[in-house]
Amino acid sequence: MAPHVLVIPFPAQGHVTATVKLAELLFRAGLFVTFVNTEHIQNRLLGSSDPTFGRLSRLPNFRFCTIPDGLPEDDPRSLIDFARLEESLRTRSREHYRELLVPGGAGGRDAAGWPPRVTCVVADGLLALALEVAEEMDVPVMLLRSTSACSVWALCSIPKLVECGDIGIPEEVDMDGLVQGVAGMESFLRRRDLPSVIRNVKSAADSYLQFLIMINKNLSRSRALILNTTEYLDSLVLPHIATVCPVIYTVGPLQNLLRSFGSGHPSQEEDEDDGGASYSASLWQKDMSCLKWLDSQPDKSVVYVSFGSITVVSREELVEFWHGLVGSGRPFLWVIRPDMVEAGAETVPFELETATRERGCLVAWAPQEEVLAHPSVGCFLTHSGWNSTLESIVAGVPMICWPFFADQQINSRFVSEVWKVGVDMKDLCGRSVVEGMVRKVMDGGDVGEELRKSATEMSHVARRAAEEGGSSYTNFQKLVDHIKSFELTNK
C-alpha cells in the first residue's frame, strides 16, 4: 500500500492555495493523500466552482475530509484575528482531528484495509493542534509554512528583537531606523519592514507575540520544515532558519513544480478541465472575462492591481488609489473583492467611473496566475502576500508593493532591496505617490528598465529550480523519500 499523508492547511485562502498544490504533488509522487479542510472552507470551495477541487475529488487516491472550526456559522472569521481561529481549532476541534488519525476512523476502511493508516502529517505551521495530537499518537509531522522564508526567520527572531528593544515600538520612533535583531538583515531591514504582527504589538507580553513564540518552538519539534521557495531566492535566510529546524525542503515555486511532475501522470486527464493552467483552489468565483479584456490591450501596458484575500481599505484609500491609477494614464485591471472596502465606501467620484470605463477593468476576483502570465501585463500593484509575490516573480512581472498584514511588510522589503524586482510603497497611498510609482515602473526610464531586466532574470532562475534536475525538483524527491522512510520504519 502507498504511504498515506494527511495534509491540513490553516483555513485561509493563501494557506489553502499553497497547501493544495503541495498535496497534489504528493499524490503525483504516488502517495495516498487525505486533505483536511474546515467545513466552512470546504463549503466555500464548493461554492466557488473552482476546477481544482473537482479535479482532485475525482482522483482515486486523493480524498477530502472536513473538521469543524468551532465557530458559529455566521462568524465573520476575520483572518486579521488569526490567533482566535487557531485557538478555536485547537480547543474545539481536537477530537474531530484525532479521529482522522485513528486507523479505520472517520469513514472507516474497506475489507482490503483501504485507505491505509496515516504514515505522516503535513500540517500548516500555524496549527499547533495538528502537531500536538499527532505527537500524542506517535505520527510523524512535517510543517509547511506557506508564508515567506524571510518572515519565518523574522518571527523566529522575536526573542532577539525583544532584547534589542525593537518590540513595542514607541509611536514617536523613527520607523526608518534599522533593526539589529534579525541576523542577516541588519543592513537593510527597517522597523517599518517588520511583519505587522511584530511591528504593531505594544509590549513583549502581547498575546499575539506569545502565540507566535509558541508556533516558532514547534518548528524544532517537527521532522522537517517545507517552504514554497527556492534555495537561490532565500539563500540569505535559509542557513539561519536551519539553526532552528535543521531539515528544510525548499520546493517552490509549487505551481511550476506541479507542471514538471504532471506529464504522463494519471491526473493528466483531469487537468484537461482547465488546461492545467491554474492550481489555485480559489474560495471566490473567478471572473474569466478579464482575460478577454487583457487580449485587447498592448503588450506590457496594463497595471494589474490586487490586494489579495484579506486586505481591507477605507473609502479614502480607495479613492486615492483610483486617482493615482487614472492619473498614470495606463490601462488597469483591478480586483476589488466584495468585502475589500470598508462599509459605506461603495460610491466613488463620477470622474473616476468615467475614466475607468475608458481604460479600466474591475472584477471581484481574477485568475491571477493567468493574468500575470498575460503578455499585456506590465506591472503588479500588490499587497505582497507570499503567493502573489512568488507568482509575480515566476511571471517576470515587476511589482509595486503596498503591504497590509502579516509577512507582507518584510516581503515588500525583500522585493525592493534584496531581489530588486519591484518598488516598495508601504505606508503610503496618496494619489501622487501611486501615480509616480506606476510611471516609474512602467515608463521606459532607467529604473523601469532595470526592474524589468531583474524580474526577467529572477523568473528564469525560479523556473529552472522547479524543472527536472533543479534544486526544488530534487528537494521534492528527497521529501517524498523522507515520507516513505516513515512507512518503512513503521513496518
Task: Explain how this protein is built.
The structure is a single chain. The chain is α/β, with parallel strands linked by helices and 491 residues long. The chain has two domains: 4-151 and 205-274 and 465-490, 3-Layer(aba) Sandwich (Rossmann fold); 289-464, Rossmann fold. The protein has helices at residues 13-28, 39-48, 51-57, 82-92, 94-101, 128-136, 149-156, 158-164, 196-199, 207-221, 238-241, 254-262, 268-271, 289-295, 315-328, 350-359, 368-373, 386-395, 408-418, 431-442, 446-466, 471-490, and strands at 4-8, 32-38, 62-67, 120-124, 141-145, 224-227, 248-250, 302-306, 332-335, 360-363, 377-382, 399-401, 422-424. The strands form two sheets. The chain has a seven-stranded parallel sheet, with helices on both faces. The chain has a six-stranded parallel sheet with strand order 10-9-8-11-12-13, sandwiched between helices. β6 (224-227), α11 (238-241) and β7 form a beta-alpha-beta unit. α15 (315-328) packs across α16 (350-359), α15 (315-328) runs parallel beside α20 and α18 crosses α21. It is globular, with a radius of gyration of 22 Å.
Q: What are the key terms here?
A:
7-stranded parallel β-sheet; 491 residues; 22 helices; 12% strand; Rossmann fold; 13 strands
Q: In one word, what is the shape?
A: globular
Work out the radius of gyration.
Answer: 22 Å
What percentage of residues falls in helices of 4 or more residues?
Answer: 40-55%
- CATH level 3 topology of the largest domain: Rossmann fold
**Largest sheet: spatial strand order:** 3-2-1-4-5-6-7
Number of helices: 22
Assembly classification? single chain
Q: Please outline the major beta sheet.
A: 7 strands, parallel
Derived from helix and strand composition plus strand pairing, the structural class reads alpha/beta
* CATH fourth-tier homologous superfamily of the largest domain: Glycogen Phosphorylase B
**Which stretches are low in confidence, meaning pLDDT under 50 for 5 or more residues running?**
263-277
Reported CATH architecture of the largest domain: 3-Layer(aba) Sandwich
Number of strands: 13
Beta-strand content estimate = 5-15%
- CATH top-level class of the largest domain: Alpha Beta
Terminal CA distance reads 12 Å
Integer average pLDDT: 88
* Number of discrete domains: 2
Keywords: Glycosyltransferase, Transferase
InterPro entries: UDP_glucos_trans (IPR002213), UDP_glycos_trans_CS (IPR035595)
Organism: Iris pallida (Sweet iris)
Family: Belongs to the UDP-glycosyltransferase family.
